[in-house]
Write a structure and sequence with these properties.
About 35% of the residues lie in helices and about 15% in strands. It is globular. By secondary structure, it is an alpha/beta fold.
């Protein structure tokens, strides 16, 4: 029998030196119709002002907040996510980025999608600079006034009764900023491969290994709506050689049906 309702859920939030965005994200978490059982903030080396913000917001948080920090030695997302997953105490994990504000049903929608033998990938809607700035000033969320600047306009709509009809029409995509999985499944594939440093494709790597394990992806549309705060896009295009190396690695994972990584989560778990 497939289990549809996790008994407990952690919200894993990654962040790096943007406390203003993290504040908005946490405020949106506090307003959820279904609260997570814990919040784990995976911090890839932020300055002390981020810790000060977390300590201040912890006082008003309706759920426990754990802050996991590592020294700033460049972009080490895989490592800090592994540390956050190891710190999480609950059986299901919803993973987001620290610049993505959540519509109030976000956690509820993910829990409704949870099912053993699967992991879930949602979408995001990108906000305009004007809309984002209004949130930074007012700290009040109004959901229907903005215009997405890229991506599918459907990503901003939550229509539960259409969900099962809309989802099969969309191709499978991996969005590490909006993802949910059973903690036991992530432990089984040994989490993220920490050989990925710098931007790009660490989430695809783990998704392929989950697929190889027999854990199937479910794409979530018309729900789990999130709003990506505006910022200037970094040049995330990998240099040609590095890009091809990563594509070759992903191909090898599929061809060899590789499930685990040797440089992953297990080093942070209790023995």
């Amino acid at each position: 029998m497939k289990k549809n309702k996790p008994s407990s859920v952690a919200l894993l939030i990654t962040t790096y030196n943007w406390k203003e965005a993290l504040e908005l994200v946490l405020l949106s978490v506090f307003k959820q119709t279904v609260l997570p059982d814990e919040i784990v903030i995976a911090d890839d080396g932020s300055r002390s002002d981020t810790k000060e913000l977390i300590d201040r917001m912890r006082v008003d948080s309706p759920v426990p907040i754990t802050h996991v920090w590592q020294e700033d030695k460049g972009f080490r997302l895989s490592k800090i996510r592994n540390k956050g997953i190891a710190a999480a105490k609950n059986e299901y994990i919803i993973q987001i980025d620290g610049d993505c504000v959540l519509e109030k049903h976000f956690v509820q929608d993910h829990l409704q999608m949870a099912q053993s033998g699967t992991y879930v990938c949602g979408s995001r809607t990108c906000c305009s600079n004007e809309f984002s700035e209004n949130w930074f000033v007012t700290k009040q969320f109004s959901w229907w006034k903005f215009r997405p600047v890229k991506g599918s306009g459907l990503n901003r709509f939550r229509v539960g009764f259409l969900r099962k009809y809309v989802m099969p029409k969309f191709p499978i995509t991996i969005k590490g900023c909006n993802m949910a999985f059973w903690r036991a499944d992530i432990i089984a594939v040994n989490g993220y491969d920490e050989n990925y440093e710098g931007w790009g494709y660490e989430d695809h790597d783990m998704a392929i290994r989950l697929d190889n394990l027999g854990i199937k992806q479910r794409t979530l549309k018309m729900g789990a709506v999130m709003y990506h705060l505006y910022h200037r896009e970094k040049n995330n295009d990998l240099l040609s050689d590095e890009y091809h190396k990563r594509m070759e690695k992903l191909t090898l994972l599929r061809e060899k049906n590789i499930i685990t990584t040797q440089n992953g989560l297990d080093k942070y778990l209790p023995t």
